[in-house]
Request: fold
Amino acid sequence: MRVTRAAALGAALLVGCGTASTGGSGGPSETPLPTVEASPTVEASPTGAMSLVEAPATGDLPPGDYYLDLPAYPARIEFAVPEGWWHFWSGSTRETSDANAILVNSEDTGAANGSAWGLAFTVADEVRVDPCDSNAGSMDSSVTDSAATLAEAFSSWPGIQATGSEDVTVGGYAGRSVEITPDEGVCDEPVLFTTPAGYEFGPIFSSSEPTANQFMFLDVEGSVLIIWMNDFPGTTTFEVEGGASPDPQAHVADQDQLHEIFESIVIQPR
Reply:
């Protein structure tokens, strides 16, 4: 079974956003869109990378080098995608998406709704005071001004533990990293922040330990680019909801490819 676009609603990071995406929202209850049998030709850029926006909209991506050069991001992002991975995007069109994920095919786990396991690029607008209580409001807008202030904001939440905050450099840009894990009493579907387009970004945890989500906040051309990964070996809770049996080793082989994607990232100023 191939993961279809409509089958991946929470598959990346969605926890009930009203701005549904044809790339991944709609949820398991929606009728899945058909998988494209033949991949259209994707024109390469002068650097040899292909536009992810122009790649096949359903099914696995043809392996190769891709780029995202969207208004939502402060710079162009290039990366390599191996065989067996596909594209999730937020919003109504890929051209206006401000959350884009590369997720592994869930076929091996038995999940019928997608894997929710991989890597994503996004940006933050409003950061929740309490990820489990929308009525608690948002933090001051200044927390999104820099990688350091955003990492500090992620370390302040009730019900979520934040560890491993350190300096990082990704694709030539410096920033801060942080790992979050669920603490006692955390809700089933926490929302960490919303993007400028209104997408509600939440973590995807594992059905077994370890379950940390990794966030890297990079200071890029006056803005903060966020890279998210759930680099753990077990099935995600989303996969289990989709029919997969809990398996603490389900994504061990995928982790090597995830690291290859991450290490291939190049960020280029416009």
User: Anything to note?
Assistant: The longest strand covers residues 160-170.
